[in-house]
Design a protein that fits this description.
Mean pLDDT of chain A: 87
Shape of chain A: elongated
Distance between the termini of chain B: 61 Å
CATH topology of one domain in chain B: Sodium/glucose cotransporter
Oligomer: heterodimer
Number of helices of chain A: 3
Strand order of the largest sheet of chain B: 1-2
Strand content of chain A: under 5%
CATH class of one domain in chain B: Mainly Alpha
Largest interface: A-B, 42 and 51 residues
CATH superfamily of one domain in chain B: Sodium/glucose cotransporter
Largest sheet of chain A: none
Low-confidence stretches of chain A: none
Radius of gyration of chain B: 24 Å
């Protein structure tokens, strides 16, 4: 096996690992995305509405649907930005 | 100063600003015209995306819609923000790496097919025109109410402004003006919201205010109580079926992520990491308005019920008459007692007989009328008018650019006349933009009666065509031309026919009992998307994998460098 072949096949493995890690991040972030909106805001809304956000007039399910889910969405994107910047750096594919 | 002179002043200043920016940012190449040369910093692109996205519907109609729908209105809040998570995580960075000019560009190149490109062009143009008609209607409403010019003149003025910066500056001009328009619209939305929150809940932060109390009772509890008393459904509980809530939210989210005028904004940043970051900024800037809107909805609803319900018609304040004149408020005294019975469908009197509702209020006026109802100063009312115009014009410009680039780039350069020179293509882009402005203006002056209905169409279409086809183009190397085209076509036909059947052909049958699994036409895009995925994957399995150079393209868009 020549040097160039080793380096291409190792690049290919690296690429695969990079992509798999990316997919793992996506799975985790999108599960959270689903949970706060479809979960707390729609599917479990009646159950959550039996509780209140402490000290406010918000029923919890209603609050998730009209406030909480959106706050989490914003945080999710910035977490993704941080994770991916670190991942790009680790695999040396970040842009200068 | 009167409301009208304040409005002239503020609208005049903002319009002068937009024109000034147009002179400053003239596009010199097709790359500048289509994607602002790819030099927009992420924060600036975030702001421009926010203005691009937040339309007359977000600014003028949404809070009003929520104030009438209560919890059910959450579909718009979650749907129109949650789509950005999908966009940021699943589409934007990869499309930026691909790095061309339009959405049909990606579809055509990735699937190595002119047919796929053309289907995408048709969808992009249809979705954009559907949307533009609504923006121009918003411009018309603001002009006719606040400046007392007729709608035609109002739309002409709006067209003139958009013409200026879209035709001259292309994406470059649009980007700068959208940044200015974001600042105008967010200021105009927040000022009255903060005023109202202070007035009603005693806190300057509306997001906290509507969960607060006044007079020893939580606002939301009092509103639920009032609703029950007047025979409306409880404000904080829904009346839509869970499956329908779920599907409408999903359709709006996926549709948002698939809208071409939003996607192209991510071609304008320099690097992949900037595309990710600017999606975050965009959602943050959007969330400022979207988390405030439900608060405004609650304040407006409480204000309205307390001001009009059971009060004498003769003693209504001035704003009531002003809006009656536009036909957007209508009072009919059924029982002739001179009092306004504003009640819901479940209202009954002491004897148990139903009480008819006597007041019709157009949802669209809640945000515009709110400052007047609350008795806020004249300049605040004028500011809302300028903000509504900024929201409508910024979105209209973004949409017109999609139409123009679909014609000059995708149709002309990539399909009909590949040898066209850079200079000719730029000229074609300008002519197409100018023609699109005129069509949009025509739609604004002669609005087709079905504008409201076709918005569901735009989202359903984006959800059942663009989103799946782009997503599979990035995440599946096996997805081929045959799969993508058959998926797009079946998704399009299924969604289109379902909406067409219930909205145009048999509108009388548009009730939950007749819907497929109880899913309304607004939510059917979700099913259309699933159909698209299923058909595409099935067909791709039966046909050969895409050629080597396409597989390499997919490999390359998955990493930021290399």
């Amino acid at each position: 096996m020549t040097d160039t072949e080793t380096s291409t096949s190792s690049t290919r493995d690296e690429r695969k690992l990079y992509w798999r890690t990316n997919l793992r991040y996506l799975a985790a972030l999108l599960s959270t995305w689903f949970l706060v909106s479809y979960g707390c805001g729609i599917l479990f809304v009646d159950w959550l509405n039996e509780f209140r956000l402490p000290g406010t007039g918000f029923k919890l399910g209603f609050w998730f649907a009209q406030q909480g889910s959106m706050y989490v969405f914003v945080v999710l994107i910035f977490v993704y930005v941080l994770l991916m910047n670190r991942l790009d750096h680790r695999f040396d594919v970040d842009e200068s | 100063m009167t409301i009208q002179s304040w409005t002239f002043l503020l609208v005049g200043i903002t319009f002068a600003l937009y024109i000034g920016l147009a002179f400053f940012a003239k596009a010199k190449s097709t790359s500048e015209f289509y994607v602002a040369g790819g030099h927009v910093p992420p924060l600036a692109n975030g702001m421009a995306t926010a203005a691009d996205w937040m339309s007359a519907a977000s600014f003028i109609s949404m809070a009003g819609l929520i104030s009438f729908l209560g919890y059910d209105g959450s579909v718009y809040l979650m749907g129109w923000t949650g789509g950005y998570v999908l966009l940021a995580l699943l589409l934007a960075p990869y499309l930026r790496k691909f790095g061309k000019f339009t959405v049909p560009d990606f579809v055509g190149d990735r699937y190595d097919s002119q047919t796929a490109r053309l289907v995408a062009v048709v969808c992009a143009i249809f979705v954009s025109f559907t949307y533009v008609a609504g923006q121009m209607r918003g411009v018309g409403i603001v002009f006719s109410r606040f400046l007392e010019v007729d709608i035609t003149t109002g739309v002409m003025i709006g067209m003139g402004i958009v013409f200026f910066y879209a035709v001259l500056g292309g994406m470059k001009g649009i980007t700068y003006t959208q940044i200015a328009q974001y600042c105008v619209l967010i200021f105009a939305f927040m000022v009255p919201a903060v005023f109202l929150s202070l007035l009603i809940a005693g806190t300057p932060i509306p997001q906290f205010g509507f969960g607060g109390a006044s007079g020893g009772e939580f606002l939301l509890d009092r509103l639920d109580g009032l609703h029950q008393e007047l025979g409306f459904a409880s404000y904080t509980d829904g009346s839509k079926a869970t499956i329908d809530m779920f599907c409408i939210t999903a359709s709006l989210m996926v549709g948002t992520a698939g809208l071409p005028h939003v996607i192209v904004r991510f071609y304008t940043v320099p690097r992949v990491r900037d595309a990710r970051k600017s999606a975050g900024w965009a959602l943050l800037f959007i969330a400022i308005l979207y988390t405030t809107a439900p608060a405004v909805a609650v304040f407006a609803r409480s204000n309205l019920l307390e001001t009009v319900s059971g009060k004498a018609y003769a003693e209504m304040p001035e704003w009531f008459g002003n809006w009656e004149a536009t036909g957007l408020i209508a009072f009919e005294d059924h029982n002739g007692d001179g009092l306004i019975q504003y009640v819901g469908p479940a209202a009954v009197d002491e004897t148990g007989a139903p009480v008819p509702n006597e007041l019709k209020i157009d949802r669209d006026i809640m945000v515009l009328a709110n400052p007047e109802i609350a008795g806020l100063p004249n300049w605040v009312i004028a500011l809302v008018a300028a903000g509504g115009l900024a929201a409508a014009l910024s979105t209209a410009a973004g949409l017109l650019l999609v139409v123009s680039s679909a014609v000059s780039h995708d149709l002309l350069k990539r399909a009909l006349r590949p040898n066209i020179s850079e200079k000719e293509e730029l000229l074609a882009a300008r002519v197409a933009a100018a023609a699109a402005v005129c069509v949009a203006g025509y739609l604004g002056i002669h609005p087709p009666g079905f504008v409201g209905q076709v918005v569901a169409f735009a989202f359903g279409l984006a959800a059942s065509t663009f989103f799946p086809v782009i997503l599979m183009g990035i995440f599946s190397k096996r997805m081929n031309r045959e799969g993508a085209i058959s998926g797009m076509v079946t998704g399009l036909l299924f969604t289109g026919m379902y909406i067409f059947y219930f909205r145009f052909w048999h509108p009388e049958a548009d009730v939950p009992e007749n819907w497929l699994f109880g899913i309304s036409p607004e939510g059917i895009g979700t099913v259309g998307m699933v159909v698209n995925f299923a058909v595409a994957i099935f067909v791709a399995r039966l046909t050969p994998p895409p050629p080597q150079h396409v597989q390499e393209l997919v490999e390359s868009i998955r990493v930021p460098r290399g």
